[in-house]
């Protein structure tokens, strides 16, 4: 039987809900620290399958998933992306570098971020690149909903995750060809998965952004 909320939606993020779906939404966090433990293939496939259940424009289901679990390869791709990303940030001007990294990339340790062994994928044991083919104006929205399905499904079964927007810059590296992604496809996003080794605090949510018409 489907559960219902015992109390109306509250403004306090600490409110406890009887509805498991809403509870999962409120508890999911972007995790960037993982223990050294592989994620079982059947678990990965369960998470990907949840992504397949997302809505898409005209039911085109534009997504395709490329799953990477080799530790050495993950670090190689991470370093390559880091180099490309750093070059892009340098073009914004020296004065804005630290602000860009702290604000956009959410890393408090600035340029040192790029010197880490795995600066982009955070030592996660699983990286899933999500692509689409063609130039559909709705593909990015579709893939965003697909990714959210995957991350919520992961949380519900004890797997941590984080969306990695920088992953799309792998296309600008010499390593990209090793992924064997067809030329017609483009990476929109990657999701990292693993058993988390941190419990990030929730960030304050804006409450002045709803307008009743």
Description:
The chain is α+β, with helices and mostly antiparallel strands and 213 residues long. The protein has a single domain (31-194), classed as NADH Oxidase. It has helices at 20-27, 41-52, 71-90, 94-103, 139-156, and strands at 64-68, 126-133, 160-164, 185-194. The protein has a 4-stranded antiparallel β-sheet. It is globular and about 50 Å long.
Tell me briefly what this model is:
This protein is α+β, with helices and mostly antiparallel strands.
Can you lay out the helices and strands and say which pair or pack?
Blueprint: H1 20-27, H2 41-52, E1 64-68, H3 71-90, H4 94-103, E2 126-133, H5 139-156, E3 160-164, E4 185-194
Antiparallel strand pairs: 1-2, 2-4, 3-4
Task: List its traits.
213 residues, alpha+beta, NADH Oxidase, 5 helices, disordered N terminus
């Amino acid at each position: 039987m489907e559960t219902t909320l015992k109390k109306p939606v509250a403004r306090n993020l600490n409110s406890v809900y009887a509805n498991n779906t809403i509870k999962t939404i409120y508890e999911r966090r972007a995790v960037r620290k993982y223990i050294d433990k592989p994620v079982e293939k059947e678990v990965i496939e369960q998470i990907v399958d949840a992504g397949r259940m997302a809505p898409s424009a005209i039911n085109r289901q534009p997504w395709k998933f490329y799953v990477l679990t080799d530790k050495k390869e993950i670090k190689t791709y991470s370093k390559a992306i880091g180099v490309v990303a750093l070059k892009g940030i340098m073009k914004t001007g020296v004065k804005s570098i630290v602000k860009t990294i702290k604000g956009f990339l959410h890393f408090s340790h600035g340029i040192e971020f790029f010197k880490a062994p795995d600066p982009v994928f955070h030592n996660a044991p699983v990286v899933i690149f999500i692509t689409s083919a063609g130039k559909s104006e709705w593909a990015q929205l579709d893939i965003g909903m697909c990714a959210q399905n995957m991350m919520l499904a992961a949380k519900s079964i004890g797997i941590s995750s984080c969306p990695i927007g920088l992953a799309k810059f792998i296309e600008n590296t010499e390593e990209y060809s090793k992924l064997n992604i067809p030329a017609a496809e483009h990476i929109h996003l990657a999701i990292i998965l693993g058993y988390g080794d941190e419990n990030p605090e929730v960030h304050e949510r804006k409450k002045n952004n709803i307008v009743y018409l």
